[in-house]
Protein backbone atom coordinates (compact mmCIF):
# COMPACT_ATOMS: atom_id res chain seq x y z
CA UNK A 1 0.00 0.00 0.00
CA UNK A 2 1.34 3.41 -0.99
CA UNK A 3 1.77 6.34 1.39
CA UNK A 4 -0.19 9.52 0.92
CA UNK A 5 1.69 11.96 -1.28
CA UNK A 6 2.53 15.52 -0.32
CA UNK A 7 2.06 16.75 -3.90
CA UNK A 8 -1.58 17.26 -4.93
CA UNK A 9 -3.45 17.90 -8.17
CA UNK A 10 -3.22 21.57 -9.17
CA UNK A 11 0.13 22.21 -7.42
CA UNK A 12 2.92 24.02 -9.28
CA UNK A 13 6.00 21.81 -9.23
CA UNK A 14 9.55 21.87 -10.58
CA UNK A 15 11.39 18.82 -11.89
CA UNK A 16 14.62 18.37 -9.92
CA UNK A 17 16.23 15.53 -11.88
CA UNK A 18 16.16 13.80 -15.26
CA UNK A 19 15.92 15.02 -18.83
CA UNK A 20 13.36 17.73 -17.97
CA UNK A 21 15.29 19.11 -14.98
CA UNK A 22 14.39 22.71 -14.17
CA UNK A 23 11.03 22.66 -15.97
CA UNK A 24 7.99 23.85 -14.06
CA UNK A 25 4.41 22.79 -14.60
CA UNK A 26 1.06 22.20 -13.00
CA UNK A 27 0.15 18.73 -11.69
CA UNK A 28 -2.62 17.38 -13.94
CA UNK A 29 -3.11 14.14 -12.03
CA UNK A 30 -1.71 12.54 -8.89
CA UNK A 31 -1.45 8.74 -8.84
CA UNK A 32 -0.88 7.69 -5.18
CA UNK A 33 -1.02 3.95 -5.96
CA UNK A 34 2.27 4.19 -7.87
CA UNK A 35 3.64 7.39 -6.20
CA UNK A 36 3.64 9.21 -9.55
CA UNK A 37 2.34 12.53 -10.84
CA UNK A 38 1.41 13.76 -14.32
CA UNK A 39 2.93 17.21 -14.90
CA UNK A 40 1.88 19.58 -17.70
CA UNK A 41 4.58 19.85 -20.39
CA UNK A 42 7.02 17.49 -18.65
CA UNK A 43 8.19 13.99 -19.71
CA UNK A 44 6.47 14.18 -23.10
CA UNK A 45 6.48 10.93 -25.05
CA UNK A 46 5.26 9.89 -28.50
CA UNK A 47 2.37 7.47 -28.45
CA UNK A 48 1.12 5.48 -31.44
CA UNK A 49 -2.66 5.29 -31.48
CA UNK A 50 -4.97 3.12 -33.54
CA UNK A 51 -7.89 4.76 -35.30
CA UNK A 52 -11.18 4.02 -33.62
CA UNK A 53 -14.77 5.18 -33.87
CA UNK A 54 -14.64 8.96 -33.70
CA UNK A 55 -10.85 9.13 -33.19
CA UNK A 56 -8.08 9.52 -35.69
CA UNK A 57 -5.05 7.27 -35.51
CA UNK A 58 -1.44 8.42 -35.70
CA UNK A 59 1.40 9.52 -33.48
CA UNK A 60 0.44 11.85 -30.64
CA UNK A 61 2.57 13.44 -27.94
CA UNK A 62 1.37 12.97 -24.37
CA UNK A 63 2.76 13.48 -20.87
CA UNK A 64 4.00 10.37 -19.08
CA UNK A 65 3.96 10.05 -15.28
CA UNK A 66 6.99 11.21 -13.26
CA UNK A 67 7.91 9.78 -9.86
CA UNK A 68 6.90 12.12 -7.05
CA UNK A 69 10.47 12.09 -5.64
CA UNK A 70 11.68 13.80 -8.83
CA UNK A 71 9.54 16.92 -8.35
CA UNK A 72 9.45 19.66 -5.72
CA UNK A 73 6.66 22.05 -4.84
CA UNK A 74 7.04 25.68 -5.98
CA UNK A 75 5.67 28.49 -3.78
CA UNK A 76 5.80 32.25 -4.19
CA UNK A 77 7.72 34.32 -1.63
CA UNK A 78 8.14 38.09 -2.10
CA UNK A 79 7.27 37.77 -5.81
CA UNK A 80 9.90 35.07 -6.38
CA UNK A 81 9.20 31.40 -7.02
CA UNK A 82 10.96 29.17 -4.49
CA UNK A 83 11.17 25.35 -4.44
CA UNK A 84 10.41 23.81 -1.08
CA UNK A 85 9.67 20.62 0.78
CA UNK A 86 6.24 20.05 2.30
CA UNK A 87 5.46 19.61 5.98
CA UNK A 88 2.24 19.45 7.98
CA UNK A 89 0.77 21.14 11.03
CA UNK A 90 -2.57 21.01 12.78
CA UNK A 91 -4.75 24.09 13.37
CA UNK A 92 -6.93 24.76 16.44
CA UNK A 93 -9.83 22.65 15.11
CA UNK A 94 -7.49 19.70 14.47
CA UNK A 95 -7.40 20.09 10.68
CA UNK A 96 -4.21 19.02 8.91
CA UNK A 97 -2.62 21.90 6.92
CA UNK A 98 0.26 21.66 4.44
CA UNK A 99 3.17 23.99 5.19
CA UNK A 100 6.07 25.09 2.95
CA UNK A 101 9.23 24.17 4.88
CA UNK A 102 11.42 26.86 3.34
CA UNK A 103 9.03 29.80 3.83
CA UNK A 104 6.99 28.52 6.78
CA UNK A 105 3.76 29.62 5.08
CA UNK A 106 0.57 27.60 4.69
CA UNK A 107 -0.11 26.17 1.26
Automatic annotation (TrEMBL):
Keyword list, A-Z: Ribonucleoprotein, Ribosomal protein, RNA-binding, rRNA-binding
A GO term, aspect molecular function: rRNA binding
GO biological process terms on file: translation
Domain (KOW): residue spans on this chain: 6-33
Gene Ontology cellular component annotations, sorted alphabetically: ribonucleoprotein complex; ribosome
SMART domains, sorted: KOW (SM00739)
Pfam families documented for this protein: KOW (PF00467), ribosomal_L24 (PF17136)
InterPro entries: KOW, Rib_uL2_dom2, Ribosomal_uL24, Ribosomal_uL24_C, Ribosomal_uL24_CS, Ribosomal_uL24_KOW, Translation_prot_SH3-like_sf
Entry function: One of two assembly initiator proteins, it binds directly to the 5'-end of the 23S rRNA, where it nucleates assembly of the 50S subunit.
Subunit structure: Part of the 50S ribosomal subunit.
Cited PANTHER family: MITOCHONDRIAL RIBOSOMAL PROTEIN L24
NCBIfam families found in the cross-reference section: rplX_bact (TIGR01079)
Family stated for the protein in its record: Belongs to the universal ribosomal protein uL24 family.
HAMAP family cross-referenced by the UniProt entry: Ribosomal_uL24_B
Name listed for the protein in its UniProt record: Large ribosomal subunit protein uL24
